[in-house]
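Board notes (copied after class):
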Amino acid sequence: MRDDKSDIDLISQVLQGDKMAYAQIIKQHQRFVFTLALRFSKCREDAEEIAQDSFIKAFRALHTFKQNSKFSTWLYSIVYTTTMTFLRKKRLDTQSIDDETSLIQLEAYSSDHTIIDVEHKSKMQFVNLAISQLSTIDAAIITLFYQGEQSLEEIAQALGMESNTVKVKLHRARQRLREKIEGILKQEVRDLL
């Protein structure tokens, strides 16, 4: 997990005129911002655009960050809002061949092929495939909680919900995720036999 103190230090540097410090903020958060945007948009190109737009919006609004929450929570709320606005504008339901499933398959073949690495990637492929089949909000909550290591309160703040609502939605999303993974694994066994 990132060091929030370093985020605060970097923000202070940016606000004092050091624009290069913002590059470090981007470097620290870009992977997860992209992952979150991809969970919402389900399209790699859209996620790249959303991530870029989110970082631009965050830079322009950096002076409004009040430090009463973690910087990552504030940033993820910008990603969520930017994504929802982007998807509302898009309204076209197109399927890209460069989607998350393709990305997972490419990652599985491009890494060094140690047994542990391949096994881990195989498990992650099933998990990511199952997450991609969840509703947008379920996928976001699962991603923020497990990959973003955000608390229920932080997720609630980022998504504009009550903490108890997020707790219930997380519980239900876990159940749906388990069902999706079981379905995928059953299909995988059928395909092997």
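Comment from the instructor: Residues 99-193 form a domain with the Arc Repressor Mutant, subunit A fold (CATH 1.10.10.10). The chain has two domains: 1-93, 99-193.
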